[in-house]
C-alpha cells in the first residue's frame, strides 16, 4: 500500500511538471516567434528537457527521503545513490535492502519506468509537432 502511495505521488509530480512545461511553452511561444526556426526548436526542446530532468530529480529525491525518513538507509548520499540506481532500474546490487522492503523498493523502479516512458512520449509528441510537415516526404 505504501509503495502505491509513493508511486502515486511520483505520478502527480510528473504530470504537474509536464503540464507546467506545456503551459510554459505556450506562454513563451510569443517570445520564441522572432527567433529563427532552429533557435525556436532548440529553445522548446531545451525547456522540455529541463522540466523532464526536474521531474525525475524530484522523484529520486522523494524516494531518497523515504529511505531516510523510515531509517532504511543511514545517510543522504547512500539514499540518493540507492534511489537513483533503483529509479533508473540499473540496480547495481551493492546496496541491498532487507527482504521486507524489497517489494516497496520495487515501486521506486516502477515509478522510474513509468516516468521515463511518459517523458519519452512527451518528448516524441513535442518533437513531432516541431518537425511536422518539415521533414522530406
TrEMBL record:
<keyword id="KW-0472">Membrane</keyword>
<dbReference type="InterPro" id="IPR013099">
    <property type="entry name" value="K_chnl_dom"/>
</dbReference>
<feature type="transmembrane region" description="Helical">
    <location>
        <begin position="42"/>
        <end position="70"/>
    </location>
</feature>
<feature type="transmembrane region" description="Helical">
    <location>
        <begin position="6"/>
        <end position="30"/>
    </location>
</feature>
<keyword id="KW-1133">Transmembrane helix</keyword>
<feature type="transmembrane region" description="Helical">
    <location>
        <begin position="103"/>
        <end position="127"/>
    </location>
</feature>
<dbReference type="Pfam" id="PF07885">
    <property type="entry name" value="Ion_trans_2"/>
</dbReference>
<feature type="domain" description="Potassium channel">
    <location>
        <begin position="60"/>
        <end position="128"/>
    </location>
</feature>
<keyword id="KW-0812">Transmembrane</keyword>
<protein>
    <submittedName>
        <fullName>Ion channel</fullName>
    </submittedName>
</protein>
